[in-house]
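Quick start: read one record
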Amino acid sequence: MIVSAWYFLGFLMTQAMAGGILLQALSGLEYRIGMLIIMVVCTIYTINGGLKAILSTDFILSMLILGVLFVTAILAFLRFSPSMVYEGVMANRPELMNLISGTGIMYLGSNFLFACGEIFHSNIWWQRIYAANEKVAAKSFILSGLIWTTVPVVAGSLAFVAVANGYVVPQVNMVFPIVVSKLLGPVGAVMVLVIIYSALASTVSSVLTSSANLLVQDIYKSLLNPGAPDEKVVKYVRYTMVGLAVLAVILVWSPRNSMYQVLYLTGSAVASTIWPVAYGIFNKKTNKTAVLAAMICSMIFGLIAYFKISSYAAPVVSATLGMIIITLGTRIAPDKNFHWRDLNEQVTAAIEKGGK
């Protein structure tokens, strides 16, 4: 729960920043005003709509984003041929064409590890699995994952277009809206504003719903008031949503250098969950003490790597250290008393207890 709360808060901070940065890039509106608009709108929307409203809009918004992204990329390369883009990049930033640059390799590895840890531990995805039909859950996750892998490729190609043409990009997060506004003019700016703002609303709503539910269920419902009626639990979930939104706004009230820097501050915690979950699923002899030690050490040394080496180093150090500790602990002292039926009985008891 601590890891999830850490991640949720960092994620909320980046989305609040994104709202301010987007409006600032497209309209010149002051950063704090844009940030307040996105957080106020999303909090009200989430409190009134809930998970059902979020899930029903996610598909439409995703298709809109994919459509605009690909149309923009096609228009960009019709206007600027690949050879023109290459020559422009080589003239302005030739180091970006180095396929084996240390920063690029570190970024690729840390992104992969961060994404794995996010999927493994985040309540955003777990509550979607529980809400989905069992027959389509696996297929939908695989298909959506394959489709969405094209997004960073296309977005990265647009970044090359921006570099080749010397567009002024104050922050890396502004690349897409600036390229679209340059190519499509005012119409493109409005399209980006509507679509990305809708996507932000969906993302923030998902984070608020999943994080508030997790905190209230694990702390209030499980520890403080197990017999609390559903109506009271829902009321506290809504209070928690408001509190999280306010806290996120306070923490990013002063603009940060980069959304990535803020998000990767959670990288050590997120990556620390990879091997505990993977080993727990595929190896029933996983040592529980080693798992706990691995998560604590991974978070500590991942944070040290974040501040001493690079933000991209945090997930890499965390995941690597976690793998080593759990592997050695399980090999040296395997847990021989675990039985899947025991876990099943615990889960069944928890479900029955929650339903009473």
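The chain has a mean pLDDT of 78.
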